[in-house]
């Protein structure tokens, strides 16, 4: 009989103990994986939101712009530079951008804002602002008219909860209001009839128009068609001021962007800041977005940027966000650490019991001529099998949940969604597909097993056969 | 008597019981201590929010927060002051003039919230003045004809008021704190050079020093080189009460450093009168009236009372303003409970396993007890108690260790500044003083006992299934 | 006065496919104060019969009446209480609760029966004295020899004054000297306390002392002899 067969049969001799121990490993692995997936998925979404609505994956900037983000560190970009970058195999588009501060005023209300100038037709190639245009708004009037129609179940109540809320897509509207899938076809036309929000996006030819964040619009009481005054400091300290009409309203992902977002064409921005032909950065959109591909692209483009300019990755540009997530991440890691610590004790306890209980059996095996080395090998295999059984079950159990959570992110509806939004969070809990964090669980469990195995092997070699037989 | 047998049974196999007890001890300790550490940053965050940023209750014009229009001041501030004075629990009251604007220097500009304050009154109500960075001036200390402003470090950095210069004095201070002469000599080439950002400074000395030297003395060098232009001036631009753009130069009176980056980056305090002159707001017109209470815990009680008394105005507690903090404080007990439940669930596996072993190896003995007339309820109780003892002994040991460690670290503090830059961006201090309420220990004790009971159910049922006839079988 | 009445009792086990008749139509009765042994080869049904008398097992046929209780009418939980109230057990081994001292073990059943504390103490002292272990009150079972452990078991079984004592091979694990002294004690208690003893055994030493020897073979009583040797 092969060693592993002996080990396997031994395992099932005490089925209950094997199963409970494997179950404890399963519990830790399963829980750790699902929790990690949620946590990392949330970060991933946050990163993606910022990248797609603001920073892009790569940017060409003045060398000093990262440290001193002002107009003095802007530069002139010409089509030859753009062409050279766009020729790179991984680059899909280059979007010149001029960004600065201004004080926005509508009537006597003011707010400090970030002014972003881009070519709206080029911008859609790298960013995803256009899809954030508000399409439905539950104004009090809209809610009234909707309630006059026949609505399913609790929808009427939900409408009261979400008065004045804006939605960028029908899917979000349906899910947040908690409308059943079966009712969707009936309800959607009603929303299209009563709650549609009339606004439009910038075009390249627009002049004197802006698209602003939903939060800023509420704050300044500036709706579509209202006039906004932008005042600030232009290139080389020239004072800058201009009048713009609000053309569209977008719902940006993070409050700090949403409350300060003013978007106009690059030409208008250059005119406002008296910086003709100048940009503060150029967003480089790419095919391959993983870290390695980004770094390789950056290195390949080194000859274009030269010494005066630099290419920054989204990680460099969003260092603060990454830091915040890192701090949050530590909390999750500690939690999982404690969990595994506790499980390690459980596994160790099992080993201890097993060794005590089978002392006589081990004594007998050695007495009839089994080498201690071989015995230690069998015992090690048993433990390895228990651990791997737990890990395999944990991984297998988590996969359906993680895949489902990725394909169809958990969305809160109704009161729960309202609470999340009131606290300033999007009511979605996305998950991250299996990644290196899966591998880590295996490594941790193997480490725990290694300690347990070391202990039992030592016990086997230190065993006195005569005493063991008498036990 | 069943209790005493159960207790003695726990100690029959010392190694096995101690392993489980140690697991419970370590698990409970790790859980409690982690929570005390998290709790510490929340308590500090609340402390900061209340003592430096918000006070307990704010009264605003209904429109003010949704749009900080300068015209949205409180119509009858007298009445607000009177009402607050009469409300039990309120200790201090002051009014604020708040205007949005842009602060700029020749090098940079940033959006700010300009708050005009009663300097003397706010000194009593808030501890922000204690957050002054030494060497940057004072909290409106000097008499000067120029307008003066008290601003956050983060804002100062954005405006490039703070720079890094290795002056001869800086070298001297490095020497006094014990930086080796060798390192100081290496830095000599940088003497007098100005660095506009921290990064430029670190970049410059990184080229001169070894990795270990940077690790050991980097912080010291940064601190020594940190300097700001004495009496720096900034330009504030804003809209006055008539909607006209206006502005004025302000001298920096002092710079404060808090744990809240956002607050530091946004806040700029000026004397109330100067802001009135600049904006044309009349004496007695306030955008916001704030009040402090005797205790934080009174917030939920007093806020509705004030709200009732001032129907035309927006009355908010600090919890309602800092919703993220409110979520944390409102749900923290549930979060702690879930956290502990997960740990205890993991521990339960160990207890179940141990108890099961213990029951199965006592087949004969349990059979004998049943044969001589110990009924099922008693056998069940005995196994249950054994399991509860295991969890309670471990649990109490864990809580005792936690209490001691929390008491020590709560006194000395844990410094995570090196590891958690991101925490301060959220407004949470990276300097922790672990603390946790006594009610948490009570809740935890209950949870531990429940863990013991739940883990015993399966083994105890197994014990009941044993056949008493087994006891009569010979060897 | 009859302590135990057994009327045409049978016990059949269904062991996988084979039907085993462990006890087959046994009719017996025991009087108060008897000192009886049940003997027979392995598998003759001694232990099964003893289990049936002690209420550890239910017969598949016939009836057992102990102290007025028809055992077949009792529910399992009532059976446990019945054992506590009326039957004393001495097993071959694993008799004592390992975590309790000798006196605590003797006291255990009286405790379950809720005797007043003082009475319990007096009876415990008395019983330990009569089994000759007055000096071992506070010894744990692991500190006692096999013979001493069995003597404590006898003291425990007898202490609450049950109707009778069932002893299943009580001497099987003992050396001659310990066995003899255990039997001396049991005979003495039989005499002094008028306690009924029912043994099952292989041991010739026990048979020699018995005043009634019941022989079982294949689940049937093949002989039931009363000897009148003096004791």
List keywords for this structure.
heterotrimer, A: 471 residues, alpha+beta, six-stranded mixed beta barrel, two-stranded antiparallel sheet, 20 helices, 56% helix, elongated, B: 475 residues, six-stranded mixed β-barrel, three-stranded antiparallel sheet, 17% strand, flat
Fold and architecture overview:
The complex is a heterotrimer of chains A (471), B (475) and C (231). With 471 residues, chain A is an alpha+beta fold. Chain A has a domain of 196 residues. Helices cover 56% and strands 18% of the residues of chain A. Chain A is built from 20 helices and 15 strands. The model of chain A has no long low-confidence stretch (mean pLDDT 87). In chain B, a hairpin with a 5-residue loop joins strand 8 and strand 9. The radius of gyration of chain B is 32 Å and the shape is flat. Chain B has a six-stranded mixed barrel. In chain B, strands 6-5-7 form a three-stranded antiparallel beta sheet. Chain B has a two-stranded antiparallel ribbon with strand order 13-14. In chain B, helix 2 crosses helix 16, helix 6 packs across helix 9 and helix 14 runs parallel beside helix 18. The two termini of chain B are 30 Å apart. Chain C has one domain: P-loop containing nucleotide triphosphate hydrolases (Rossmann fold, 3-Layer(aba) Sandwich). Helices cover 35% and strands 29% of the residues of chain C. The interface between A and B is large, with 64 and 66 residues.
